[in-house]
Specification:
- It is built from four helices and four strands; from the N terminus they run βαβααβαβ.
- The protein is an alpha+beta fold.
- It folds into two domains: about 5-40 and about 135-165, Alpha-Beta Plaits (2-Layer Sandwich), CATH 3.30.70; about 55-120, no CATH class.
- It has helices at about 15-25, 55-80, 95-120, 150-160; strands spanning about 5-10, 35, 140-145, 165.
- Strands 2-3-1-4 form a four-stranded antiparallel sheet.
């Protein structure tokens, strides 16, 4: 069974949300629907599932690594070099807490940046689905259906207020 990728362009959010609900009712799963808009739209508005990301896990891992590195800088390096300080403790706690905090935040920030960079698949050299009308404020809904049912889905999208419904294919940006 061959699949067709169709593109429906909507003027406003409400018809696009209704179209996504209709696609769900007609048996199209979320993995076969892609919504593109020129402005950020919350997933709840369009009835989409929550996007899954690993950025928070990477940030937490970076914070733990930074904390461990800060502790090593505070308490590990004085023991690497024998410094005689006349009976005083080699590592005072208040400055050590500041260094540990700064290393924790630095590593968390770097891990977050790396996580966002990797999670967005940047740079991406494969052809992507994009439509020029999205830059004009319209909402594009891509969906994959069986080629035999394309006419039925096209009629349903036109009934819901789509400006146009046409076959789409990925192209190089």
């Amino acid at each position: 069974m061959s699949e067709a990728t169709l593109l429906a362009i909507f003027e406003d959010l409400d018809p696009a949300a209704n179209a996504i609900d209709t696609l769900h009712e007609m048996g199209v799963g979320d993995e076969n629907i892609n919504v593109i808009s020129g402005v950020p739209v919350a997933h709840k508005i369009l009835g989409r599932p929550h996007p899954w990301t690993n950025v928070s896990k990477l940030s937490m891992g970076g914070a733990v690594a930074g904390f461990a590195f800060g502790i090593f800088l505070n308490f590990g390096t004085p023991h690497l070099y024998g410094i005689q300080v006349g009976g005083q403790y080699v590592t005072p706690i208040p400055p050590g807490a500041i260094v540990t905090f700064e290393m924790t935040m630095l590593f968390a920030l770097l891990a977050t940046f790396l996580g966002v960079f990797l999670d967005s698949y940047f740079p991406n050299y494969r052809p992507l689905e994009y439509v020029d009308e999205v830059s004009d404020g319209k909402i594009a809904v891509f969906f994959r259906v069986a080629e035999d049912d394309a006419k039925k889905f096209t009629d349903a999208m036109n009934t819901l207020g789509a400006e146009s419904v046409k076959p789409a294919e990925a192209r190089q940006l």
